[in-house]
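Work through this:
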Amino acid sequence: MTSYPSELISNGNPMDAVVGGSRAVRAGARTGIGGTAPAGPDCGTGDVAAQPRQCLESIKSALEQAGSGLQDGARPQVIRTDIDDWKATIDGRNDYSRDVRRVATILAVSRFENPGRLVEYQADAIISDWQG
């Protein structure tokens, strides 16, 4: 098995240092993106459509830094506080990549550390045209 050096990807969030993590880590053609929460003015508004879009914008940015894009997203994991709002989450994701058929997981938790947060995403991607 070939070993590739890891590239740590940050968006400058000070929480990376607090939790000891990175926004994403790329090793070869694979990129793993950690828990991505909504940020910005709509984060605490309870807007079930805006929050997934904010998460996806952050994921898109991390993938672009890794030399990839949403088209290479292979496995999004959606974590919600209210599983009954799953459809709004999927609709928001489909605005970004409706035609990319991927393995997906949606699950619910009781709460996040920020009480206004309704959703968080994690993702794995495989760069389809990667030349190692």
